[in-house]
Amino acid sequence: MTGFELLFRDGYARIGRLPTPHGNIETPALLPVLHPDQERQAIPASELAAGFGVKAAISSAYILWRQPELRARAEAEGLHRLLGFDGPLMTDSGAFQQHAYGHVEVGPEEILEFQNRIGSDIATVLDIFVESTAAPEEAQRGVEETIARSKVARGARPGLLAVPVQGGAYPELRYRSAHAASEVGDVLAIGGVVPLLEQYRFAELAVQLLAARPALAPERPVHLFGAGHPVLFAFAALFGVDLFDSSSYHKFARRDAVMFPEGTVPLDSIRESICDCRACREVPLPELRGRPVAEREHQLARHNLAACVSEVARVRQAIRDGALWELAEQRAAGHPALFAGLRVAVRGARWFATVEPESRDQFRWCSPLSGLRPGVIRFLARLGVWKQGRGPYRYHPRVRLTPGALRTVPSHASTGEPIAWETATPIGPVPLELLELYPVGNWMGPEQYEPAPPRSAPDPAEVDPAETEAQRLERWTQRHVAGVLTWCYGATLAEQLMEPGLGVVRSARSGRLRRLERDGVPWFTVRNDGLPQPTWAAAREIHRLLPTPRGRVGVLADAAPFVESGRTLFSSFGRPLDPSLLPGSVALLVDPEDRLLAVGRLLLSPSEIGRFQRGVAATILSHARAPPPTLEEEAPELFPLPPDPPAP
Known about the structure:
The protein is α/β, with parallel strands linked by helices. Helix content is 37%, strand content 18%. Strand 8, helix 8 and strand 9 form a beta-alpha-beta unit.
């Protein structure tokens, strides 16, 4: 087992920790290529760590093996001493050279044994590189041979083993190869894609990544061979790629090509100092054109590596912020080929559905693809189910994504009941009851900055003159709360939770729901995404009313006392019960007898719980052995409400 630990996640993308004999690799990570012959290394290995913060690298075991003098030194001194690099080192096996030159002079068993002898932290199986143009029979033979070699390698490799995923242009072969690799590999390496990367065939790459993704074990890090351009990192991370490697930082420098997150620019075209990286502070790009070839190549390699390292850090930050889709859309705007690849990704929204977070802090519009993100598609599908048996809905012209406007919705004069209203949003008509929910409740798009339509007076036929504004607000509030609770728990449970009555606290500034109470005791706090989060009091009632296994995650008996006292639930002690839960969902944590232990927020999806041997499955929000309620909980009216989200 790899011991790979998931720390943060945004859909398939994750920040993780991969332990190796020479230290941990924090993913996503770029592993720059170190040439075995240091005379041909553009940037000294010592500068990679000290100057660029590179914690891990990759080198070619095959090139090292081919040179007798270097081979002897590697076997005598070890790989790390030979290369002068103290961090984790991965080695590849010569599959790309076999593809490029037609053969290699070493067999799969011999090259793996060589990687063992020189102390590689992550050794790679010598697989069969399947070209995207390969015929079906040829591609299948390549996959079969790769699987056979991987099984043999597993028995001969005591340490971490990277197993390539091949299949060419055939999704069914990619899926099969990914499934087989997951059974024996510690690192799952997507191979055979370098021609797609070099030719900007990102739409085809997206097809292959989507085909492999469902079969890739979630507890294993995923490597994308040959991906070394900053324009690609956010796009690949969407599919759960954790590790990148490439020598492109040096290859591009040799041809005077300057790498940026938005694309590649010829050095000759740069007339302004447009970069502030370490290399460019020493020698600005416009001044490099007149420098000697060796100096120019060295400085460009340093700039290119800095651009790559910085972009990977930006990807990690986007994952922490829940904003990776936004970053990927911004990068896709830099090249039509990448936009085409992202368009394939959004068409595969169903593959992202099980790991797409329940909500995010904000939904920022970035491109025409924003309205097709998996979170939007899932919301619209769920909305179709929620609306069954409701309505018919009428269009409300005065509400524009402003939940505070839901203070006094007109009621019909003849019945006194609130009319079923919906209003236009960027993703289509949405009932007013759900306007505070993600993604529409925290949508940030150009619509918010356009002039508001004039407010019109309500139709007199829609207003009961005998009803005061306070009475209309109360009627609307009951409908609003019922709609949100139904969204979370279904109509039957929502009706039960609202009896004998829930008190509602709204924000005085925005009118948003902030808290639901019963007899002065908080039952739900309403998050900025509009979703009610149950307190311990509400959780006990939900647990009583909600049939097992709905809303539940199991806790093994050995861990139950710890979770019951408020300790984190770790993946190895959890068991999935309700497959409909999502990362970010609030779940009931129960022991094997269905006794409620705690309320937790999930980091993992149900399909991942129990598979990771290290790391957190759920953080605890409230628990059975919590201390007595504080004065703030007993008398919330004495304390200020939580702040509203900042205005866009």
